[in-house]
Specification:
Layout: H1 2-53, E1 56-63, E2 74-77, E3 83-85, E4 91-94, E5 100-107, E6 114-120, E7 125-132, E8 142-143, E9 151-152, E10 159-164, H2 165-171, E11 186-189, E12 197-200, E13 208-212, E14 215-216, E15 238-245, H3 249-252, E16 259-265, E17 277-286, E18 291-302, E19 305-316, E20 319-320, E21 327-328, E22 333-345, E23 350-362, E24 364-365, H4 367-371, E25 375-394, E26 404-422, E27 428-448, E28 452-472, E29 477-480, E30 489-502, E31 507-523, E32 530-549, E33 552-563, H5 567-570, E34 574-576, E35 579-581, E36 590-602, E37 606-625, E38 649-670, E39 675-688, E40 693-694, E41 702-712, E42 715-724, H6 732-736, E43 748-760, E44 763-770, E45 790-801
Parallel strand pairs: 1-7, 13-16, 35-38
Antiparallel strand pairs: 1-4, 2-3, 2-5, 5-6, 8-9, 10-15, 11-12, 13-14, 15-16, 17-18, 17-45, 18-19, 19-22, 20-21, 22-23, 23-25, 24-25, 25-26, 26-27, 27-28, 28-29, 28-30, 30-31, 31-32, 32-33, 33-36, 34-35, 36-37, 37-38, 38-39, 39-40, 39-41, 41-42, 42-43, 43-44, 44-45
């Protein structure tokens, strides 16, 4: 019995022990699970809290000029190792950013450094669209004029064409106006061979603004039609000519209704690795006028100072037209010119440039006055320009709100006069106007929130004229009232603001506004007395750009332009083609409202643009018959009797509304590595609504096509064909203009050839055959026929001196 009981107890003990083990294992498993849950809570929850409170920076880096993404950009927080590098699409991401106020540094070897101030909060995700400004620009692709900041032709909302240094050199043009004859949408009207005035979108003279390095050349003495002022800048000193078509009044104020032509001189700060001295010499000969043109220039570095200068000389004989027209006498003249620029770097970001320029022309004949036998002498003499300027250019790197600053102060002195003797007259009239201009402009470019590119600043100019006339006869010399009252002054002031809003790589918007004020003072004779008037205008612009493809840009744009009345509108007493213009007080500014749409292409094989525009013109100033000193004719000899040859008096009034519409198309197709095809056409239609007649001097339909063959890198051949249709839509003014044939200007076509050969390094030959078929033709509104068949030879040497 005992053994049995023991066995039972032993079995119960074993069973109890197993249960205890199970209980122990259960307790252990429960403990492990609790521990795992504890550690999970202890680890996962803080991780979630950290993830929730971490700061993330994401965005894209783009080029300010092209708006293309930039790869390999270093983006990091100041005084930390936290950062990243942008990928091939310009995208970047930083997942661990410091909270609070900090500085994000953005650096790339080809771009100016950028510092971005940020205030970051825990858990925040910051999106940035960073815009960088390139240090080195391909100037044949970049424009500065239209928006006062660097941008590509393709990106700009404006229709802009550049004639760069290479194109100016190849064209070997005798005048600066001739250098833009091949620019699409431009007709160059020439009253005589020594003149040249661009017609842009149907407007000319005082309605087209001329600039030299951004400095206004338009003066209150500018007359209605063509003028000579563009020819007082030497093309050989220019690095480029930027032609902006359409109103530019928001950036440049009065006169920029038809367009803006900015002539930019050749200059760049020499680097330390460049040779200390460069020199060049260019020679040109043209058979149609036996023109002989020579220019010599140098560029040198003296320590940290870079100097650039040059001198030129022109000897132009009478121009020979096509076929039976022959020599047009007189059209020849002489000129000499000089320029000098100094660049002084104040730091790596700031430099000062000093600019000096002079052009002197004497006895430039006005040919159309001789053709009509109205005058036996009509010479522009003198025709001189003197200009000096100082420009401060800076790109601050320690300010977040200023990207660049440019400040300019300029002084100009112009001497312009005429020597006139009518046929069978015993009187010689000498007119002389001396014009002094002091001006200044400031433009600042700022990038705000990496989305807005602001351009803002001011312009101020003050003009003062000294005018007199001398009437010489065999018996005496008589002082007379000049074209303008002595001491007349014209002051203009404007402030402007333009915002280019970049929403993304495909879409951007431009908004601009300008407030302009002008003041004109002049002491007129009785019955007018002291004359003073003020003019003002508020102009604006809105432009949209959509780029569905990287090579396609769709543009829509509205711009308001204006032109304030000047001396020639208000206080002039001057003989013109159809009578005498007399003082006209009480005028208001002319205004324009321009609407346009455009397409730009920038593909690897083809590029080009097409624009359609409509420009509504309001309060146009026009000439009406009037009175001066109680007479409706100009009593030239003061005898109170209307003698033969004494003409009607005209005065100006704001009387007309009109519109100009048209289209411009241009393009180039790279057929192969050796063949390049280019074309351009434009058509303009203008109508004076008030008088129900065509606008004056509207160009005909014009087209140009060319084929260029490049057998080797140093040699190119080009054949180009130019066509202009007949223009017989004439205004009353056109019909009275002796420069326009009765019934209108005939159409014409010319075939031309051009060869450019780099003979040896530094020596280039340009050879041109103009008007190969010897056609007789003239540009619409011109007073002189264009050259007949002619040969032009240009030779340019550019070498280095050790």
């Amino acid at each position: 019995m005992k053994s049995c009981n023991f066995a039972i107890k032993k079995r119960d003990f074993v069973m109890n022990n197993r249960e205890l083990i199970k209980i122990r294992d259960a307790i252990f498993d429960f403990t492990v699970i609790c521990q795992l849950l504890f550690f999970s809570i202890a680890i996962v929850v803080p991780l979630k809290l950290i993830a929730k409170s971490s700061i993330r920076i994401v965005g894209t880096v783009v080029d300010e000029i092209s708006q293309h993404p930039i790869s390999n950009v270093n983006i990091y927080f100041e005084r930390t190792n936290v950062g990243t590098i942008s990928d091939q699409d310009g995208n970047f991401s930083i997942d661990k950013g410091p909270s609070g106020s900090t500085i994000l540094l953005v650096k790339h070897i080809g771009y100016f450094d950028k510092r971005i101030s940020l205030k970051l909060s825990p858990g925040e995700t910051k999106h940035l669209n960073i815009i960088l400004t390139p240090k080195y620009l391909k100037l044949n692709e970049v424009i500065f004029t239209a928006s006062r900041h660097a941008e590509t032709v393709f990106k700009s909302h404006h229709n802009v064409t550049i004639a760069d240094r290479e194109e100016i050199s190849i064209r070997t043009s005798p005048t600066t106006a001739d250098a833009i004859r091949e620019v699409p949408g431009v007709l160059v009207q020439k009253t005589t061979a020594g003149h040249g005035s661009p017609i842009i979108r149907g407007l000319i003279g005082k309605d087209v603004l001329l600039l030299y390095n951004g400095i206004r050349l338009n003066k209150p003495t500018f007359r209605f039609g063509a003028n000579q002022y563009m020819n007082t800048i030497n093309a050989e000193t220019l690095d480029r000519i930027e032609v902006t078509k359409g109103p530019g009044s928001v950036m440049y104020g009065s006169d920029a209704i038809g367009g803006v032509v900015n002539m930019i001189s050749e200059f760049h700060q020499m680097e330390n690795n460049e040779r200390a001295s460069h020199t060049s010499l260019s020679l040109r000969y043209g058979s149609s006028d036996h023109s002989q043109i020579a220019n010599a220039s140098f560029r040198n570095r003296f320590g940290i100072i870079t100097a650039f200068g040059g001198v030129g000389f022109k000897k132009i004989d009478n121009l020979i037209a096509g076929k039976d027209i022959g020599s047009q006498q007189p059209t020849g003249y002489n000129e000499w010119n000089g320029n000098l620029r100094f660049g002084v770097p104040l730091s790596q970001q700031t430099e000062i440039v000093l600019d000096f320029l002079t052009v002197q022309q004497n006895e430039v004949p006005r040919y159309d006055k001789y053709v009509t036998d109205e005058y036996e002498t009509y010479l522009y003499d003198p025709q001189n320009r003197y200009l000096t300027a100082i420009t401060l250019d800076s790109r601050p790197i320690h300010t977040n709100w200023i990207n660049s600053i440019k400040w300019n102060l300029s002084y100009q002195f112009e001497q312009e006069g005429t020597i006139e003797r009518k046929t069978n007259s015993n009187s010689l009239i000498k007119n002389r106007n001396d014009l002094t201009t002091v001006g200044s402009y400031l433009q600042i470019n700022s990038i705000w929130q990496n989305r807005h590119i602001f351009t803002y600043g001011y312009e101020i100019y003050r003009d003062r004229v000294k005018s007199h006339r001398i009437r010489e006869t065999a018996e005496n010399i008589e002082q007379q009232r000049g074209d303008f009252p002595d001491g007349s002054t014209f002051q203009s002031f404007g402030i402007f603001l333009n915002d280019n809003i970049i929403f993304n790589l495909k879409f951007d918007l431009t908004l601009g506004i300008r407030l302009s004020r002008m003041n004109l003072k002049s002491q007129l004779e009785e019955p007018f007395g002291n004359f003073e008037d003020n003019y003002g205008d508020l102009t604006g612009i809105i432009g949209l750009s959509y780029k569905p493809k990287i090579w396609l840009n769709l543009i829509a744009r509205y711009a308001k332009g204006f032109r304030a009345p000047n001396f020639n509108d208000t206080v002039v007493l001057k003989v013109s083609n159809a009578g005498v213009d007399a003082p006209s007080p009480g005028l208001s500014p002319e205004k324009s409202h321009n609407f346009e749409i455009g397409i730009k292409l920038n593909h690897s094989r083809y590029s080009g643009s097409m624009f359609i525009f409509y420009n509504r013109l309001v309060d146009l100033i026009d000439r009406y018959r009037g009175n001066y000193n109680g007479l409706d004719y100009y009593d030239e000899n003061g005898n109170g009797i209307r003698d033969p040859g004494e003409v009607d008096i005209f005065q100006k009034r704001n009387v007309a509304n009109a519109f100009i519409t048209g289209w411009e198309i241009s393009g180039r197709i790279q057929l192969s590595q050796r063949w390049l095809f280019q074309f351009s056409s434009f058509w303009t239609y203008g109508q004076n609504i008030t008088f129900d007649e065509p606008m004056s001097r509207i160009p005909p339909f014009m087209t140009r096509t060319s084929m260029e063959f490049i057998p080797m890198k140093k040699l190119s051949f080009e054949a180009f064909f130019c066509i202009a249709t007949r223009q017989d839509r004439l205004s009353t003014r056109d019909k009275d203009d002796s420069r326009i044939p009765e019934g209108g200007t005939p159409g014409w076509e010319t075939l031309n050839f051009r060869c450019s050969w780099n003979i040896v390094p530094g020596l280039k030959l340009n050879f041109i055959v103009e008007n190969a078929c010897d056609e007789t033709y003239k540009e619409h509104g011109s007073g002189v026929y264009s050259p007949g068949r002619s040969l032009v030879i240009g030779l340019k040497y550019g070498g280095n001196l050790k």
